[in-house]
Amino acid sequence: MEFKPIVELLSSISVIVGVPLAIFIFAYEQRKARANEEEEIHQMLADGYTDFLKLTLEHPDLKLQSKHATPDLNEEQTERMVTLFAILVALFERAYMVAYEEQMLPRKARHWASWEDFMREWCRREDFRNALPQLLPGEDPQFAVYIRRLAAEEAARA
Q1: Interatomic CA distance for residues 112 and 90, integer angstroms
Q2: pTM assigned to the model
Q3: How many Cβ atoms from other residues are within 10 Å of residue 60's Cβ?
Q4: How do residues 42-56 score in pLDDT, each as one tens digit?
Q5: How far apart are CA 106 and CA 104, in angstroms?
Q6: What would the DSSP string read from start to end of the chain?
Q7: Do residues 95 and 45 make contact, with C-beta atoms less than 8 angstroms apart?
Q8: Res. 85 pLDDT band, cuts 50 70 90
Q9: In percent, how much of the chain has pLDDT > 90?
């Protein structure tokens, strides 16, 4: 057998096998990169929520770790509470904007479920629900609809 036909055969085999393999490897690496990016976003948001919880601990007089509205706040305390709620709403909006989709893959849906749990937990607080009308103007309209719905559902359960 001559050398040229063998080289042509090997070349054809390498194209037939190599191109699909390269496409598969590229797609796999892209999917892995997207998963890593989603995980990084989730971690940054989780760190933001942890930072917010630390803020609540720095203001124990507001009793933000309680499940119930804090009664009898003076003007300065009310202002601090509303400011903390504004920070929280901004964090929730950011999470909604980067993590929420109508149709999610199971992994992303699990991440989103934790954010919805956080939102529902805060929406159970009457003072948080009462502050929402002054906190939501200027926020993403779809997010505003979403958190108002959660707030209404939690108020109905109370």
Answers
A1: 16
A2: 0.80
A3: 9
A4: 889 999 999 999 999
A5: 6
A6: --HHHHHHHHHHHHHHHHHHHHHHHHHHHHHHHHHHHHHHHHHHHHHHHHHHHHHHHT-GGG-TTSSSPPPS--HHHHHHHHHHHHHHHHHHHHHHHHH--SS--HHHHHHHHHHHHHHHHHHTSHHHHHHHHHHSTTS-HHHHHHHHHHHHHHHHH-
A7: yes
A8: very high
A9: 62
